[in-house]
Amino acid sequence: MTIKLGFVIAEFNRDLTFQMEMLGEEHAKFLGAEVVEKILVPGVYDMPLAIKKLCEREDIDAVITIGIVIEGATQHDEIVVQHAARKITDLSLEYNKPVTLGIAGPGMTRMEAHQRVDYAKRAVEAAVKLVQRL
Asked: Could you report the per-residue pLDDT of 60-115, keeping only the tens digit for each?
């Protein structure tokens, strides 16, 4: 059985999330999984509704979130990631499907974000392992 994945990708910092998307998709293929749907959303905070739509689909076994949240002058980055991560966990439990956190941040500079594009790869790996083991 091929594991079917959905990606929810933030457009904010798209130069970095595009790299993450490509790494995630490549790793999914390496693991024998297939990305069957991708939804682009404006930012990390906007992910929950798209995640919910993918979780409702019977042809998707797990959802991977892909995003970058870079530190700003205020604590906005912390609020964005805290609320998104909480809702991502809630949706995983509500739909009984893995929804993994491929979001780098908060508290990162743009340079640090470049060094963390592999978070998407890790999130794909976690999703595939969870589907196999559960």
From this structure: 999 999 999 998 878 888 999 999 999 999 999 999 999 999 999 998 999 999 99
* Half-sphere exposure in the Cβ direction for 10 (13 Å, CA): 26
CA 118 – CA 122 distance, rounded (Å) = 6
Q: Which of 26, 52, 23, 58 has the alpha carbon at shortest distance from 39?
A: 52
Cα–Cα–Cα angle for 99, 2, 123, nearest 5°?
30
Q: Please list the active-site residues.
A: 76
Q: What is the pLDDT of residue 112?
A: 93
Length of the chain: 134
Phi, psi of 101 (to 5 degrees): -100, 95
CA angle 34, 91, 100 (to 5 degrees): 45
The predicted-structure confidence for 2-15, as pLDDT tens digits, reads as follows: 999 999 999 999 99
